[in-house]
Specification:
By secondary structure, the protein is of the alpha/beta class. It folds into 2 domains: 160 residues, Rossmann fold (3-Layer(aba) Sandwich); 227 residues, Glutathione S-transferase Yfyf (Class Pi), Chain A, domain 2 (Up-down Bundle), CATH 1.20.1050.90. Helix content is 50%, strand content 19%. It is built from 16 helices and 14 strands. Strand 5 and strand 6 form a beta hairpin. The radius of gyration is 24 Å and the shape is globular.
């Protein structure tokens, strides 16, 4: 939990001290007074990054040269004193007086989970939003996962740089030998990242489904599955291997070729179902049986299977990648699909359904952090205004159940469905 925070020159806040209780802390005041900035400051000190800006210099108050944040965290009798100074040329980061390389060094010891109205983008937004959510809690599970993720991104960046240079000039620094080395590294790291994500998807899909059922009052159900072209390829290859010559003769022309990846991505699932004679809903069709099996825990592909499939995929895409100047396949292009009634919620979910699913995803992150690290700080940025009465009560019940430290930003404390242990009132210009 966080017990104290000092904020200086962060966005609209000139300077302030806050003390927090282990229970429910409410920050109330009119719009523009800095409520969300306090949540952002806590998140930055806990997680090592802002949930609103990639460049921390954007947090510095207008016409000032630097910001300062200090926080005191208590965890099982241990105190962590953290400090961040951000200025035009970079940042200085300390924990208990010791210098750290960057704020990201904070990650993994005092977790925090943010809930905010913009979380609806977890459902409505592009795949990169869900990948970021998945990778954040993937790092809760193990520091090794964080290392694999960082290395994968670094190798991907280097490989894309090579491909871009080749596209522009017909050659690239390091030549073909460098591309082969980078490709092999990408395959090895990609297989490890896929295996970790698939295992995590299995764990969180059950949690999300359970929380969504509570939030919706059992009116409808959602399912989750990890969505990857590699999983579709593996599934299609398994289908092709298991079919007899007689069955192959009865298939429509080119059906198996399309199933293993020669067709566009949006047609692959349908081609696969045509080949097997299987009927299924749109959501299941779009990622194939292996993805579904991985999500429910059976027949999850091994690292070797993923490595071999990735190698084949990149070999098939080599010409296209050189022409496009970028890596066209890999974990960086995957998605987590959430579906209701067999259809992806991204396209058909109502506002209420999507908001409930987003809250369920955040509570799933709370559970993963609690299991592998410690109970996280739960940061709520005026989320109750976006929920109907039944969902408000369900969220309040879940918050009490988690017994986490809670910091809530809201215009009116009296509108909350529970009583505050500590109330911090702000005015515009505080």
């Amino acid at each position: 939990m966080i017990s104290k925070v000092f904020i200086s020159k962060v966005r609209s806040l000139e300077s302030m001290d806050c003390n927090f209780d282990a229970g429910i802390n409410v920050i109330c005041g009119p719009n523009g007074c800095g409520k969300t900035t306090i949540l952002e400051s806590i998140h930055l000190l806990a997680q090592g990054f802002s949930f609103r800006s990639r460049d921390l210099r954007e947090l510095i108050t207008w016409k000032n040269n630097e910001l300062i944040l200090r926080g005191e965290f208590e965890d099982e009798g241990r105190t962590r004193m953290r400090a961040i100074r951000v200025y035009s040329r970079g940042s200085e980061v300390r924990e208990n007086g010791e210098s750290l390389k960057s704020p990201t060094s904070f990650f993994g010891t005092c977790p925090a989970v943010i809930m905010q109205p913009s979380d609806i983008e977890l459902l409505r937004g592009g795949p990169e939003v869900r990948r970021h959510w998945l990778d954040e809690i993937l790092c809760y599970r193990s520091s090794a996962n964080a290392q694999v993720l960082r290395r994968y991104k670094r190798v991907l960046q280097q490989r894309n740089k090579w491909l871009k240079e080749f596209k522009q000039n017909g050659a690239a620094v390091g030549g073909e030998d460098l591309l082969r080395v980078l490709t092999q590294q990408l395959i090895e790291l990609g297989a490890k990242l896929w295996a970790a994500r698939i295992a995590l998807s299995k764990e969180v899909s059950e949690i999300i489904t359970r929380y969504y059922r509570k939030l919706s009052g059992g009116v409808d159900e959602i399912t989750c599955a990890y969505k990857s072209s590699i999983l579709k390829t593996l599934d299609a290859l398994d289908v092709a291997d298991s079919m007899t010559d007689e069955m192959m003769d009865e298939l429509p022309e080119n059906a198996v070729a399309r199933a293993v990846g020669d067709a566009p991505d949006n047609a692959t699932g349908n081609a696969m179902n045509n080949a097997t004679g299987a009927a299924g809903a749109e959501c299941a069709d779009s990622f194939g049986n292996v993805a579904g099996n991985a999500a429910d825990g059976s027949d999850a592909p091994s690292e070797d299977m993923l490595r071999n499939a990735f190698s084949r995929k990149l070999a098939d895409l080599e010409f296209v990648e050189r022409m496009q100047g970028m890596t066209m396949a890999g974990p960086h292009r995957d998605d987590l699909a959430l579906c209701a009634s067999g259809y992806e919620m991204r396209s058909v979910g109502s506002q209420g359904q999507c908001r409930s699913a987003a809250v369920a995803m955040r509570f799933a992150a709370v559970d993963v952090a609690s299991r592998y690290l410690t109970k996280p700080i739960l940061l709520l940025d005026d989320i109750f205004a976006e929920l109907d009465v039944n969902r408000r009560d369900a969220v309040a019940s879940l918050i009490r159940e988690k017994q986490c430290q809670v910091v809530i930003a809201t215009p009116q404390a009296e509108d909350l469905p529970f009583k505050a242990d500590v109330e911090i009132k702000l005015e515009v210009g505080s």
